[in-house]
Amino acid sequence: MREGHSYPRELVAFIYARWRDEAFLDRVCPEREQGSLQLPERGVLEQVISTCYQASLLREEERPVMFRLIIRDSYLFAAQEGPPTGMHRLIFSRTRPFNEYELHRLAPAADFYRTLIGIFIDPALGAQIWGLLHSGTRWMHAVYGGRKTSPPMPPSLVVYVTGPGQISVCIGDEIIASLNGGQINCPTLDVFNSDWMRKSLSPLNDETFALHRKARQRAEGPWADLDAEFGSKIGQQAIRRIISVIRNSNHGGLLVYLPAEMADEIMEQNPYLTLKYQFLEFDSRQRFLSLTLRIMNTLAVINGSAAAEGRMVGWHEYVNSKNENIALLDEAIFDVAHFIAALSAVDGAVVITKRQELLGFGGVISGDLDSVGMVAHALDTEGGQCESVLSEGVGTRHRAAYRLCQRLHQAIAIVISQDESVQIVRWHNGSVTYWDQVPTGVPGF
What we know:
Blueprint: H1 6-19, H2 22-28, H3 42-56, E1 59-60, E2 63-64, E3 67-71, E4 88-97, H4 100-106, E5 115-122, E6 126-134, H5 141-144, E7 157-163, E8 166-171, E9 174-180, E10 183-185, H6 195-200, H7 202-218, E11 225-226, H8 230-249, E12 253-258, H9 263-267, E13 273-278, H10 287-302, H11 305-309, E14 312-313, H12 315-319, H13 324-343, E15 349-353, E16 358-365, E17 374-378, E18 386-390, H14 396-407, E19 412-416, E20 422-428, E21 431-436
Parallel strand pairs: 3-5, 11-14, 12-15, 17-21
Antiparallel strand pairs: 1-2, 3-7, 4-6, 5-6, 7-8, 8-9, 9-10, 12-19, 13-16, 15-16, 17-18, 19-20, 20-21
């Protein structure tokens, strides 16, 4: 059994190995100049990671120690900026020593979700704490879904400590490696950035765009042209929000997305699943679609001047909009996501079509479907690289999702475990395939 203090050294060795991979650095920091990103000396970085590791093992009034830390000189941050659009720099009158006890004392003041501890590397003394950096909470929207943009994290090393022995190291917002339970892992790629996920949400996108075009034909004033993928992006954010709420509830859940044309069949007796609690086919079942359409129409109207400029609008304009109607519609979608997530607390699957029409909940996947012995574990977003693994050792939800996707090749199942892990399952390249979905790669998020 290895001693715990060897883990930080192994994590640093892993980081240095990734640093030699030019293709990796080009992906996580595409705007870098050759040689512009420099790691601290190996011994200094080992000191930083080891100190963070030791601090993670301490407790604050029976609560685990959690904090974010950035290695960047204080003068590189503007003095006048602050959240929600910038970083608020607060420099201590004198530097503080960098050790696990000082991190333990500072962690309650440096709220994990809002503030980072700033450190710099002194040539003689090594790492020292210069103060606090207030980031605000918008960075969480990239994890949990939402339209608000956060100020980009500068291309510096950022360390997340999320629990005992749980450490992640990033370049800015991009994960390099995580240490969790003694295991060092590469970042999990975000499945929602895949082409196949975008195509899966195309029914919603196509339908809302068709309705949007009809609405603009009746409009009297100018409407801006919208990005063709705008509807799909709203759908992606909704699914992220549903997943995040279920994960935070700690009870787990199963979401099943089916082709829209199967809606009537699933509501009747069928060989795939039994839906205990069904919703009638009224407009309320399609609230997400109607909200998406209203967002599209509203965005086109308030950006009508872009039509004269020949400019297309889309996600960027949406997330940066200060329009009250857009804010209300975004809040409405957030509430729908919370409602759907709450339905997962009942045993069984929440069943939704790919046009985001809520069919019902308490879905029981038929036990008569053939069991699945081997599944493919996707190692990239598109499933081009996979490894075959036995389906043994997973829970009932996972096995049910595998059986369903083996029989219904157009289905997508999202399994959220009580331990907050997330699998996205579908039929891919002739076999049941799953992706581990942890957007940030940060343990606990």
